[in-house]
């Protein structure tokens, strides 16, 4: 069973650059109408809004700007509003720079910003889904995302869960560190993308999976 307890400081950067190479070319091919599409996972936000939020968050990481209230809904709305006069291409340019530059900064930190990289990858899935792209929460970044998710849930002392994944050879252990060791270990059987959706609080309608010993809402690490 894969049990990820030790932090890999370069993992967030690998996830970000892998996603950069997959997402940015896709975005540059899209029309302005595509950027205006609503994003189901982020009510009230368009594709453009999600991308502006992502680029702003990464810029904060690179510049080390974490003022009080950072990453609250109010602060996120302010970041998006500050980019309202930008072209879609300018937002994508800033996002590309952030996905390139944030990794080394995260690697030199204490790990408290590592899960921002996972959040960026999840938001990239939100965008792909809004654009009608297949395998929205999958692709080349998925192995890195799963490893970061496992480390993050263990670091947070999240609900202990064993994931038997259809598309991964070994079971994955999530959570369990610092929680009641007498708690029954929950179990997930299904594909990796659905597991990510559950932990990110994204819709799973139509997905075939089994989840025992825990309610879906208990898994959400971003809620």
Report on the architecture of this protein:
It is built from nine helices and five strands. It has 223 residues and is of the alpha/beta class. Strands 1-3-2-4-5 form a five-stranded mixed β-sheet. Helix 3 crosses helix 4 and helix 3 packs parallel to helix 5. The longest helix has 20 residues. The chain is globular, with a radius of gyration of 17 Å. The relative contact order is 0.16. The model has no long low-confidence stretch (mean pLDDT 94).
- Helix content bin: 40-55%
Number of strands: 5
What Rg, in angstroms, do the CA atoms define?
17 Å
Q: How does the overall form come out from the CA principal axes? A: globular
In a few lines, what is going on in this structure?
By secondary structure, the chain is α/β, with parallel strands linked by helices. It is 51% helix and 8% strand. It has a five-stranded mixed sheet with strand order 1-3-2-4-5.
